[in-house]
Amino acid sequence: MTDPTPAAVPGRSANQAARADLYRRMDVQHLAPLWEVIANLIPAEPLSPCEPAFWQYRALRPFILESGDLITAQEAIRRVLVLENPGLRGQSRVTQSLYAGLQLIMPGETAPMHRHSQAALRFVVEGRGAFTAVNGERVAMQPGDFIITPSWTWHDHGNPGEEPVVWLDGLDVPLVQALAAQFHEIPPPGAATGPGARRPPAASYGNNLAPLDAPPPFGPTSPVFCYPYDRSRESLEAMARGCEPDASHGWKMKYLNPLTGGHAMPTMGAFLQKLPKGFKSLPCRSTDGAVYSVAEGRGRVKLGDAWQAFEARDHFVVPSWTSAAFEAEDDCVLFSFSDRAAQEALGLWRERRG
Ligand code: GTQ
Hints:
The strands form five sheets. A six-stranded antiparallel sheet has the order 1-19-16-21-14-13. The chain has a six-stranded antiparallel sheet with strand order 2-3-10-5-8-12. A hairpin with a 2-residue loop joins strand 6 (130-134) and strand 7.
């Protein structure tokens, strides 16, 4: 085996000055020597500045509510506390490819309509009575509901209820940014639901019926845009009755696009898993860094080397290729999302047990 590092190249010391001179002259032509950077560019395993991170809901909730006193949803456009990865501060990223934040909407507020290329998903953390609308079609938001906003669809949020409502937002912002494919638009003045908003109601797809011969309304994204928690929970229980839990994941399900059988969104995968009381998982790592929102129960998660206790509404990040393990003190239900859909579509996704 030859060592590719520059130090091992024969004659290095002899021509060091000549190389430095070459780099300097070709730099003017925007040329750079690969051999100086190849080890970091093509590492043996995923190399990411993303760090394991944990947000205890009890500690952050006062900050969310305080922001509710200081800025309106109308002024903020979206009143969100961004979950910034400690290894990626200032970049509004929770992983290299994903954005996450906790959005608050107070009773009586609306967050104005817009649309963007970035796809969004929501997992409702706290409160009842809010809605989100996609192309003018409203769905109620209940704790535990998984709701998606497909790329380039008009959407707004409102809270005609009586409680503050908080949900986790997941967007593929950094991924779309890496591709420089971002567009954003606000509706022309006076438009009620945004132009071009007509489509069959999502409910028909949710009942496993699709209009004959109609094209999928959102392209590669699921036409169902609300997956209510009680129905997701029912599916998890049915799975738990039917088979043994996976040694690493317990009973884990993915949110489907019923038209394709694939992930609900083309860039992001979303999952719901149940870990039975007393479960100790076999550690596992995968190439998709994931954001978790604890829906039910208490337990512990081992992120890299450190154990962290969790309870309902806590959030944490498992970076790409970082081993994670779980111990469930109660029956636990965890929601998570990642860029797994994109990685699978590109043939990149890998997992390693143990
Ligand atoms: O709800 O449209 O957390 O556009 C960040 C950007 C939420 C949204 C975010 C957004 C939204």
